[in-house]
Design a protein that fits this description.
Number of strands: 2
Number of helices: 8
Order of helices and strands: HHHHHEEHHH
Structural class: mainly alpha
Length: 171
């Protein structure tokens, strides 16, 4: 059932939501300056005005706070690579802004977060996650090699060769 507030009462309620001050809200709504304080307090006791204020405050709160559905939708967009991240690059020619998808680790993390909300021991899903994590590790190792770094096998091989050189030097 829709409450009937006068335009002045609605203006009072809206101003009260903004400031939290009943007297100030009454003055801004058009009530006389002399009676603003008492009218403001009286308006706050009227059920229709109070209910309107409570509904507006609840609506404001619901818009500001993410609910579970929104959270899962965001995680899904990240996992699918639909959510883009702004990256700012600086070069001698200037500063550039670009959009990029989330990296594999972030996407895997999003998938894990989604799956936490759906209990069950699905071995296929776990295998797919393991596979995706392995692919991410391989891609990371390849990227490191391309940048000139060494992976664990190379480090172990180098240590082994150094050990052999030391043994040969002692003989």
């Amino acid at each position: 059932m829709k409450r009937k507030l006068t335009p002045k009462q609605r203006k009072f309620a809206d101003e009260y939501i903004k400031s939290g001050n009943a007297a100030d809200a009454a003055r801004k709504a058009g009530y006389s300056k002399r009676s603003a304080r008492s009218v403001g307090q009286e308006n706050l006791t009227k059920p229709d005005i109070k209910q309107y204020i409570d509904e507006q405050m609840a609506e404001i709160a619901s818009r500001r706070i993410m609910d579970a559905t929104e959270a899962v939708e965001l995680l899904t967009r990240i996992a699918r690579g639909e959510e883009k991240e702004t990256v700012i690059s600086s070069t001698p020619e200037g500063v550039y802004e670009s959009q990029k998808e989330a990296d594999l680790k972030t996407r895997i993390s999003a998938v894990k977060e989604i799956l936490k909300r759906y209990p069950g021991d699905d071995r296929l899903v776990k295998a797919q996650i393991r596979k995706a994590e392995s692919e991410a590790d391989i891609a990371e190792s390849k990227a490191k090699l391309l940048r000139g770094g060494k992976d664990n096998r190379q480090v172990k091989t180098d240590e082994y060769l150094e050990g052999l050189k030391a043994i040969l030097k002692d003989e």
